[in-house]
Amino acid sequence: MARDLLLEVGAEEIPASFIGPALDDLKRVITERMADARLKHGEVRTFGTPRRLAVWVKDVADAGEDIIKEVLGPSAKAAFDAQGKPTKAAEKFAESLKLAVDQLGRATTAKGEYLSARVEEKGRPAADILKDTLHAAVHGINFRKSMRWGDVDTSFARPVQWLVALLGSDVLPVVFGDVTSGRTTRGHRFLSPDAIELKAPAEYEVALEKAHVVADISKRRAQLVEKVRAAASKAGAQLLEDESLVDQVTNLVELPSPVVGTFEERHLDLPPEVLVQEMKSHQRYFSLVDSAGKLQPKFIAVSNTPVRDEQLSLRGYQRVLRARLADGRFFFDEDRKTPLIDRVEKLGRVVWQGQLGSYLEKVERFRTLAVWLGQQAGRAGEAVTIERAATLAKADLVTGMVGEFPELQGIMGREYARAGGEPDAVALAIAEHYLPRGAEDALPTQDAGALIGIADRLDSLCGIFAIGKAPTGAADPFALRRACIAIIRLVLGRGYRFSLSAAVDESLRLLAPKIANAKRKAGEPAPREQVLEFFRGRLKALWGEQHRTDVVEAVLSAGFDDLVAAQKRLEALSLIVGRADFQPLAVAFKRVVNIVEKQGRDVQGGETNPQKLVDEPERNLHTAFTQARSTVSGLVRADDFSGALREITGLKPAVDTFFDKVMVMAEDKALRENRIRLLVEIGALFNQVADFSKIQAETAAAA
């Protein structure tokens, strides 16, 4: 009979950011080990609060499934002597399986014939499997930081206080440090401190709710949002949406209880981002705005328990915030006493990266690169704004406010630039060069900030690759993947047309004094190739979310130096591969590409010689190709890739007839090379849009 499994690890307050990853670890280890042991089960749920991590597995089978498996023994040659009698090897193998030699079979493998037997492997009892599983799960949680306590040798995020391990009504023995598992859990620390005895896992969630603990994270989150919004509405305001803060506060409480507080209106003359960050970063308060989105002198704090004296509690929340806002005002007032331009030289004392120099050196590089990018992208008129904004872009890093709140870099640069009388375009570019900060973030609203942002990130990419510190599968300390995706989004979002490889070359040129002596591993590609391949990988992943992977590969293989053009080629090709008649078209194109790949390298350069086209089908193909080439080139220059594909598609009948009627690999060398040269030219025409050899023609019609 199937029974439910419950594991709960109770501890002192676990940091909010640790809870989600820890639950993922618990669930992964438990489900993987149960799968390995062939122990079937139903739904798996996780629960987490600051004081507990729990996994509930429903309908666990009584034992792992029995299986019949084939076991190989010694080779047939080693198992029998010249007279065909079993050797010791055969007898030992049979004895180990409790079989007679004549009950063994034979199996043919790649290495030859071997003795074999089909044996039944009984599944282990669930209790035996789960004892080991739960022990491994509790000891296998990876925390960013762990601690030891008392005389306990093991470590955990915080001291473990209790363990619950139940299979149905039975307690499974699990030990962690000096704590042994039982059936006793605990409720809310203040509202229900007494022990709670569980008879079975099914009681868990309800018992905790009665003890003032909402253990289900999604349910607690929904309650938190509902209560906070209701409190904001009651206060005549609206909640400033902040999903990350909601997630954080959800895992700081077991029973969310919001209260509305206020702060002095005089602080509203501070930049709103400062006020929001003060409330969020240090106090985990929610900010409130009016219907127009203007910040209000109110906040919502979330307590872990309903308060008896709300005014007393509010005075505490407000007193702490008052001190924080006073600090913010002090930093703001002090920072404005020194013009932003006067801070630039101080960046020479701030290290960007040991081998690549200071922030001042980085600024000098990406300022030059940003102006160059502006010229290449047809934004030369922005040069003055770009140069000034780039000069000031990192100056706020040496201000008191950004030192206290690193999240405000760029924002404070904008405010201090305005205070120092810089043009609005310069101030805005300082803030916007950090955009987008994440996948869902907005792009800059003007060119100066966008181009500086591209230059800054490209300098980081090229520099870090050049000194041999490229990201690995497990680590990306300089956030280069995010930087690369941001560059792609900026170029495509702003429609910039410049050569990506030329931009990489220019960045590496500016970095040359710093990377001249950088050591590289033997056989390692040059930094230029590494950076471009890195872009290729990000494009493949990014575009692969919305387009067929073989179509993405076909477009990238034809080149992505102009990112905007590459995206347009992708969109055009994605439309045509969805057509029912594309499969035979792709097959015809592949024949061209395959011959070019196999034979084209042996043919000297130059165009097809029309005088050497002796058969009518090849003359017709050359005529059709010549007409199409002129049209396609014009359409490609106009970014009309759908039109270019239509023209290329029109070559199919002539291509088919050519292959049906003409012997490409003719004995006459001159004739053969001329025909191959014609196919090389046609292949080059195709390649202006995509490498059709990468497309899975057999699935194209089903797309």
TrEMBL record:
Catalytic activity: tRNA(Gly) + glycine + ATP = glycyl-tRNA(Gly) + AMP + diphosphate
Cross-referenced NCBIfam families: glyS
All copies of domain DALR anticodon binding, residue ranges: 588-688
Name of the protein this chain belongs to: Glycine--tRNA ligase beta subunit
Gene Ontology biological process terms in this record: arginyl-tRNA aminoacylation; glycyl-tRNA aminoacylation
KW Cytoplasm (keyword) present: yes
GO MF terms held by the record: arginine-tRNA ligase activity; ATP binding; glycine-tRNA ligase activity
Keyword set, alphabetical order: Aminoacyl-tRNA synthetase, ATP-binding, Cytoplasm, Ligase, Nucleotide-binding, Protein biosynthesis
Family: Belongs to the class-II aminoacyl-tRNA synthetase family.
Keyword Aminoacyl-tRNA synthetase: yes
Cellular component aspect of the GO annotation: cytosol
Species, as recorded: Myxococcus virescens
Record's subunit section: Tetramer of two alpha and two beta subunits.
Places the protein is found: Cytoplasm
EC number(s) reported in the record: 6.1.1.14
UniProt cross-references to HAMAP family, sorted A to Z: Gly_tRNA_synth_beta
